Structures are given as C-alpha cells and as structure tokens.
Amino acid sequence: MRLLIIFSLINISVGICPSGFIQGVDPRECYKIVTKASTWFAARADCESQGNQGVLVSIPNALRNSFVQDQLQAVFYKFNETWLGADTILNGGTWGWLDSTPFNYTNWDQGQPSSNTSMCATMGSSGKWYSRDCIHQSLPYVCKVNASISTASGICSPGYTYYANPSGVIKSCYKLILQNLISFDQAEALCQHDDAHLASVQGDDENKFLQSFAFGINAWLGFYRNNSVWAWTDGTSVNFTSWRCDVNPPGQDNHNCANILNTHAQVCCGFECEGGSCDLYGYWINNNCNNQGSESVAAAICQPTSNDTMSLTIGANGKWYSRSYDMSLPYMCEVTLPNPQNTTVNHCSQGYTYFSGDTTNSCYKLIFQPLITFNQSEALCQQDGAHLASIHDEEENTFLQSFAYNVKAWIGLYRNNSVWLWTDNTPFTYNNWRSEQNPPHADNANCANIYNSYEYLCGPNGCACYGSWIHNYCDNDVTTSDYISAAICKKAPNVF
Ligand SMILES: *[C@@H]1O[C@H](CO)[C@@H](O)[C@H](O)[C@H]1NC(C)=O
Ligand SMILES: *[C@@H]1O[C@H](CO)[C@@H](O)[C@H](O)[C@H]1NC(C)=O
Ligand SMILES: *[C@@H]1O[C@H](CO)[C@@H](O)[C@H](O)[C@H]1NC(C)=O
Ligand SMILES: *[C@@H]1O[C@H](CO)[C@@H](O)[C@H](O)[C@H]1NC(C)=O
Ligand SMILES: *[C@@H]1O[C@H](CO)[C@@H](O)[C@H](O)[C@H]1NC(C)=O
Ligand SMILES: *[C@@H]1O[C@H](CO)[C@@H](O)[C@H](O)[C@H]1NC(C)=O
Ligand SMILES: *[C@@H]1O[C@H](CO)[C@@H](O)[C@H](O)[C@H]1NC(C)=O
Ligand SMILES: *[C@@H]1O[C@H](CO)[C@@H](O)[C@H](O)[C@H]1NC(C)=O
Ligand SMILES: *[C@@H]1O[C@H](CO)[C@@H](O)[C@H](O)[C@H]1NC(C)=O
Ligand SMILES: *[C@@H]1O[C@H](CO)[C@@H](O)[C@H](O)[C@H]1NC(C)=O
What we know:
It comes from Acrobeloides nanus. The protein is mostly beta strands. The chain has helices at residues 40-48, 62-71, 184-193, 204-213, 374-383, 394-403; strands at 2-7, 12-16, 22-23, 29-38, 55-56, 81-87, 96-97, 119-124, 129-133, 139-146, 148-152, 161-164, 171-178, 196-198, 219-226, 229-232, 257-261, 283-287, 299-304, 309-316, 319-324, 331-336, 346-347, 353-356, 361-368, 387-388, 409-416, 419-422, 447-451, 454-455, 463-464, 468-472, 486-491, 494-495. It has six helices and 34 strands.
C-alpha cells in the first residue's frame, strides 16, 4: 500500500552562548568566570560591557547558587571569595540584585551580612555569602549574559542527536558510540557503517556542543595526520582546532589521531589552578591511533556525511530512509510501507536522543550537574516537558546503561510510604535493583539512580555494576549517599 505522509517541522528555541561563556542550567543564560581580581564597581562595569544584558551574577535560588559555586571551583584554589551582583549602595540601604531579581533567596553565612551599610555581596568556596567592602577589596567575579536565541529543528536517525549552531551554518546529527580502547580506524569504520564519518568540528560552538555531548568521555574526532598535514575524514576543510596548550601545535611524533579530551587533566592552560588540576573539557590532544597512548579513548563521535542531511526515520520492517530536506520548508515524503501501524516519524527535540524497543518509543536527554538532587532533576526535566526517565524493560535499561555510560544518574523512581512510583506516573512493573538492594532497605534513601560504574559491593571481588539501580538519598548529600552527577530525562517524540 502507498502512504503519503506530510509533516512540517517544529521550531525549537536554543540558547547559544558567546565564546568563553558557559551555558547555565537554564539554557537561556550564559556565565563567564573572570579570574582577574577587581573592585566590585569595576567588575560590574566589565560585565555590563559584555553586551547581551551582561550583569554581575544574581542568585535567585539554591539551584543557581550551587551551579555558580560549581563553576568557581578552579577560582577557589586561589581566591576564597568572588563578587556577586548584590549590594546595598544602589538600593537605598537594603540588599538588592543588579538585574532586579527579587532578593528573596539568601545564603548568608552565620553572622552575615555583618554590616548593611555600603556593602557588596560575595560568595565563598562553601557557597555561603558574605558582605564586603565594595571599593577597597579586589576579587574575581562571575558575569551573566543572556544567550542568543536561535530556533532550530531537525530530524535524526535513531541514536543520533540534533544540533544547529547559532549562525545556522551547522545543522547536523551526532552519535556517541561507546567502546573502550576502540582504535581510530575501527571508530571511522563504525561511523561509515551509518553513512557517517567521525565528527569534524568547524568552530567553537560546535566544539562546545560536543564537549557536553561526550561529557566525561574521551572520544575520537575525525581528525588525523597524514604526512604532517592534519585533515578531517569527512573531507571538510580545517578551519578550527582546539588543541590543548601542551600539544599546540602537536609534536612530530607518531600520535597521528585526535580525540576530544573530556576528562580531568593535570595540564592547565592559562587557568589559575594552584594545587589542583583543571577540568579542561573540550580540548583536543593528538593520540596513538591504535589507542595505546597514555590517555585512553572510550568512544567515537559520528556525524552523517552531508552537512544538511537529517535522516528521516520511516520505521517499516526496521528499514530507515535517509532524506535531505530544506530546513525552512515543510517536507513531503512518499514511501511504500507494508503496514501503516508501523509508520511513524519520530522527532526528538534538540538535545534529545531517540530510542525505540519493544515497549519503548521515547526521547532521552542526559543532564550533567554535579550533586544535583532528585527534585532538581525532575524540575529540570519538566522544564523540557519531560520527566525523569521511567524504565519498563531490560532493553530500555540496557539502552540507558550505555546512554549514561560511566555516570550515576537519577531515574524517575521514588518511594512514597514504602511504595515505589515513577514520576511520569507509568506503572512500576520492572526493576533492576542491584542484588544486595533487592528489595531496597526500609530507610530514608527514597530515590533511585542507575549505577553506571565499577563498584565493590556487588560481588566478593567487586564487579562492574553497569545498569543496576540503587536506592539513594534524594538530596544527593555526598556525606551519606553516592555522588550523583546527572539526570536522565525522557519524553515522547513528536509523531507526525
Ligand atoms: C522569589 O520571588 C519570586 C517572585 O516574586 C517567586 O517566583 C520565587 O518563587 C521566589 N523565590 C523564593 C525562593 O521564594
Ligand atoms: C541587615 O539587613 C538584614 C535584612 O535585610 C537583617 O536581617 C540584618 O539583621 C541586618 N544586619 C545588620 C548588621 O544590621
Ligand atoms: C577570605 O580570606 C580573608 C583574608 O584572609 C578573610 O578575612 C575572609 O574571612 C576569608 N573568607 C572566607 C569566606 O573564608
Ligand atoms: C534577558 O533575559 C531576561 C531573563 O533572564 C529577560 O527578562 C530579558 O528579556 C532578556 N533580554 C533580552 C534582550 O533577551
Ligand atoms: C596522504 O598524503 C599523500 C600525499 O602527501 C596523499 O597522496 C594521500 O592520498 C594521503 N592519504 C590520505 C588518507 O589522505
Ligand atoms: C573554511 O575554510 C575554507 C578555506 O580554507 C573556506 O572556503 C570555507 O568557507 C571555510 N568554512 C567555514 C565554515 O568557515
Ligand atoms: C554543505 O552544503 C553546501 C550548500 O548547500 C554544499 O555546497 C556543500 O557541498 C555541502 N557540504 C557537504 C560536505 O555536503
Ligand atoms: C511491525 O514491524 C515489526 C518489525 O519491525 C514486526 O515484527 C511487526 O509484525 C510489525 N507489525 C505489524 C502489525 O505488522
Ligand atoms: C521533593 O518534591 C516532593 C513533591 O513536590 C516533596 O514532597 C518533597 O518534600 C521534596 N523533597 C525534597 C527533599 O525537597
Ligand atoms: C503517597 O502516599 C500517600 C498515602 O499512602 C497517598 O495519600 C499519596 O497520594 C501518595 N502520593 C503520591 C504522589 O502517590
């Protein structure tokens, strides 16, 4: 039978941060850490000069407070406080935020504010606030600017995630293939199997996207050296590099393949980090192509060949059709399908990845945030019209195990008066509790996370507990619980 499917594309708003800024928990906000010590007034002027409604940072709630505190870890190696955008001078003697955020959340340390006259607020390394002399003290600071909003839409094959850059030059799909010690050639071959190549990177914004896309994982890019010339496997010209300072330019050694280095490193590139190492996420190093270098690579990032081709999924008999389309136009597609019930076009919002299985047909997103609580996670998912992920069979669990590879991430399971419930209200019919937690103890650990790392508890000699669940303390307090650094959101695809 012949079926005509007509669909138009949904526009999604995407916040894009200027170079040098970090995207906030709210993607419409961008933050810049300035490590040069300045007076409060100089800091305020510098932030305002950044454009895009630039302002010294305000703290409306605990979530923003812990986000800002986390971003400042490297600064706190050297300075014990940084300026916040609150003062009593410009507000007639009472505390107020420069950007007019209501001053109803506070996190003063004990005995603070110590004076209410002519004072400016700072944050210490514990996240607590202090009142300080605005003029005679010089401290680093955090600027906040609005993200530029671009609208983007796109359709990717299952397993691929859509990204468009602000100028719209890049509109592409990306997939992360996790495989420990994969060689560069194996990685490129796996991508080619998908009509893709290892990813090429055209600019800082795309690099930042890949940094968060492959967060915590060293992953091959399609960049390799042939007779001392660096080239991309997909043939695009070399317009951008992000070499880490110590390999810029890469030495004349036999490390001829490049990976994005998304893990903790001992090398600091112009950052002030005394006594510690730096998180130099997003930098590249040249590495041993057979993955026998000192930094091991555990993944490949694939990108389809054509710059503007999204693979459109027509899921009949498991066959997938790849179609080019013009982003700004509705698209008409004519296909022959054996069964209309099997005909769906699934479209995940930007940042979400599609997965379908026997009981599953959903879009998933991983949000990285150290020490995020269960409730914060659910709230962030709800901002996207999603919930924390519910899991209904082994297939879905196995997918999420690789999706959230090597991170411990909240799923939507919580206990209410000894009954386990999913936040998306789906029935609790499947579980994968780690053996010694089955059933979970009757304690106050009432929220569940998927446990994607090595663990000593689950067997006499320890074992890899990837994919198993544990019940945990919802507030993610590291003194009592396992450190959770991510949340998995799940929502239905847009079906046309
Ligand atoms: C602060 O006030 C705003 C509006 O006035 C409100 O939306 C917000 O929930 C308040 N925050 C807290 C922590 O009370
Ligand atoms: C400063 O003002 C706050 C309320 O804004 C008040 O709670 C605090 O006691 C005041 N501190 C001093 C030292 O006056
Ligand atoms: C930071 O250091 C200064 C100077 O040593 C000290 O007065 C201040 O109390 C410290 N702040 C915090 C939050 O420890
Ligand atoms: C900047 O963001 C704030 C909210 O953070 C919003 O109220 C304001 O309209 C934005 N300004 C522009 C120019 O987008
Ligand atoms: C490597 O470079 C040589 C010439 O310098 C060229 O002939 C060859 O095609 C290149 N190989 C690849 C894989 O790019
Ligand atoms: C990259 O550089 C080439 C020439 O070196 C140029 O033709 C091309 O437009 C550039 N591409 C981008 C995306 O800037
Ligand atoms: C990308 O798109 C441009 C304009 O549509 C086209 O000229 C170019 O060949 C495309 N590049 C690739 C790698 O498909
Ligand atoms: C839908 O496709 C699957 C294979 O992808 C097949 O097993 C199933 O029988 C099909 N459903 C119908 C109703 O034909
Ligand atoms: C989490 O949210 C639920 C429902 O809104 C609330 O009952 C509970 O007290 C919250 N827990 C924490 C630790 O904030
Ligand atoms: C939690 O349990 C209580 C009593 O067992 C019930 O009244 C309440 O509706 C439950 N809450 C949720 C969110 O299911």
